Amino acid sequence: MLCNIKKSLADCKAFLFLIKPIDVKEKLIFFIFTKTTQKMKTFFKELFEYSTHFNQKLISVLDEHGVKAPEKCVKLQNHIIQAHEVWNSRLADKKTPASVWEIMPMAELKKLDVENFATTLDVIDARDFAEMINYRNLKGEARSNSVRDILFHVVNHSTYHRGQINGELKQHGIEPLITDYIFHKR
pLDDT truncated to tens, each residue of the chain (186 aa)? Predict the structure, then answer.
């Protein structure tokens, strides 16, 4: 097989572009890679649809409880949405917002979440997942990560903090949402 299983998909892609598909085996590998890339793009779109769905639901819950909503929950939900905006800015090579802890009105937060979702779908469609993104973190330190790793981080980061929000809601006598991915897919 041309691509060793232990090699990353990015290595295989780089290799495939160095060869000219002249025989059936090479064409088959190119086809498999293309199908895998499309499946990965579809999977990431599903993950972001899931993430946005539950962001919207949690923002609604917090909005419904108004001033009775735990302050930590409001801060964390704002952080989730604003951190996603920061990563989108890095992926688009745009000026990065200065903060990920600003408290926004819930209506604005919902709108920003929808904008983040649309921007991320554009990134998924347009970018190569193996492409490396050079950026500076909020401390000004130079960093570099692949598009794939950044996208996964955004979903994972959001899921982590939604779990914290649910724990806080429960401690304050507010029914937590079931935000598990598997429940969303049923």
Answer: 334 434 444 444 444 444 444 555 555 555 555 567 889 999 999 999 999 999 999 999 999 999 999 999 999 999 999 999 999 999 998 998 888 999 999 999 999 999 999 999 999 999 999 999 999 999 999 999 999 999 999 999 999 999 999 999 999 999 999 999 998 898
Q: How many CB atoms lie within 10 A of CB 133?
A: 17
Q: Any idea how long the chain is? A: 186
What are residue 133's DSSP bridge partners? 145
**Domains identified in the chain and CATH numbers:** 49-185 (1.20.120.450)
- Sequential DSSP letters for 64-113: HHGGGS-HHHHHHHHHHHHHHHHHHHHHTT-PPPS-S-----HHHHHHHH
Give phi and psi for 67, each to the nearest 5.
-70, -15
Question: To 10 degrees, the CA torsion angle through 144, 148, 154, 155?
Answer: -160
Put simply, whether the predicted model's pTM sits higher than 0.90 gets the answer no
Tokens 């794939």: give the residue.
Answer: 148
Whether 10 contacts 146, CB under 8 Å: yes
Are 48 and 155 within 8 A, CB to CB?
A: yes
Determine the straight-line distance between the first and last CA of the chain, rounded to whole angstroms: 37
